[in-house]
Amino acid sequence: DTAVSQTPKYLVTQMGNDKSIKCEQNLGHDTMYWYKQDSKKFLKIMFSYNNKELIINETVPNRFSPKSPDKAHLNLHINSLELGDSAVYFCASSTRTSGYNEQFFGPGTRLTVL
Amino acid sequence: GNSVTQMEGPVTLSEEAFLTINCTYTATGYPSLFWYVQYPGEGLQLLLKATKADDKGSNKGFEATYRKETTSFHLEKGSVQVSDSAVYFCALIHTGRRALTFGSGTRLQVQP
Predict the structure, then answer these.
(1) What angle do CA B94, B95, B98 make, to 5 degrees?
(2) Quick check: A43 and B89 CB within 8 A?
(3) Across the interface, which of B36, B51, B87 has its CB nearest the CB of A101?
(4) Sheet holding B19-21, edge to edge
(5) How far apart are CA A34 and CA A96, in angstroms?
(6) Smallest Cβ distance to A101: which of B93, B105, B107?
(7) Chain B residue closest to A91 (CA)?
(8) Which pLDDT tens digit goes with each residue over A13-24?
(9) Chain A residues interacting with chain B (CB cutoff of 8 angstroms)
(10) Shortest CA distance to B45 belongs to which of A105, A24, A89, A61?
């Protein structure tokens, strides 16, 4: 019955590798997000998709590429991983019904780049 | 631009003490305001929200009132429990932009 799920929960990889994080929501929401939480717990928006269309694209290196194959999925692909990419990445979703005022978050993916 | 400022932590309290975590914001127009809570090792959960001035959000004994005149949304609880130990985030959504702008988070530690 998980509302917003992410895989994997933990990801440890070497610098220079390419990796993907997957997110799925079963809430029927039309908007999905990726947030990054750094080592000091600070959270910042990276991307947002509405009905598979990119609507928010913050100042994020183009090594990060989101992909939304359908409304229920938003994946994050990262090329040429760097040490500074180590963080917890949270997926979230929301819906027009609530005025997009409530976002439901996944459990997070802790990425460690060695 | 939009921003949220929270008091720095950690905040350490004894069980049954009164809690206040200060939050102020900067935004044009009329943002919606939120408190999210992150328990150790978990994702974020919405704790409470307020969508217009003078609204009071409440949940699980926590309360916060949207004060437009002071641009504040302080979180309060009359009697904290050990299980309230977590990181609390104040956040806003500005009209027309769906992404949350978060404060830096305040860690609360409640001792028995």
Answers:
(1) 70
(2) yes
(3) B51
(4) B19-21, B75-77, B62-65, B56-59
(5) 18
(6) B93
(7) B43
(8) 999 999 999 999
(9) 4, 31, 33, 35, 40-45, 48, 50, 55-56, 90, 92, 94, 99-108
(10) A105
DSSP class of residue B60 equals: T
Q: How far is A41 from chain B (nearest CA, A)?
A: 7
For residues B81 and B15, is the Cβ–Cβ distance under 8 A? Answer: yes
The residue that leads in pLDDT, A12 or A2, is: A12
**Residue owning tokens 């809570």:** B37
Q: Phi and psi at residue B40, in whole multiples of 5°?
A: -50, 125
What is the mean predicted confidence (pLDDT) over B8-32? 93
> CB distance B105–A43 less than 8 Å?
yes
Which two tokens mark A5? 């799920």
Q: Give pLDDT tens digits for B51-67.
A: 999 999 999 999 999 99
Residue B18, helix vs strand vs coil: coil
> For A55, which DSSP code?
E
The position carrying tokens 């229920």 is A72
Tokens in use for B79? Answer: 């009697």
CA pair distance B99, B82, nearest whole angstrom: 31
**Per DSSP, what are the bridge partners of residue B102?**
B91
- Closest chain B residue to the Cα of A88, Cα to Cα: B43
Q: Are B2 and B94 in contact (CB under 8 A)?
A: yes
Chain B: residues touching A (Cβ < 8 Å): 32, 36, 38, 42-46, 49, 51, 87, 89, 93, 97-102, 104-105, 107
Specify the DSSP element, H or E, that contains B14: strand B11-14
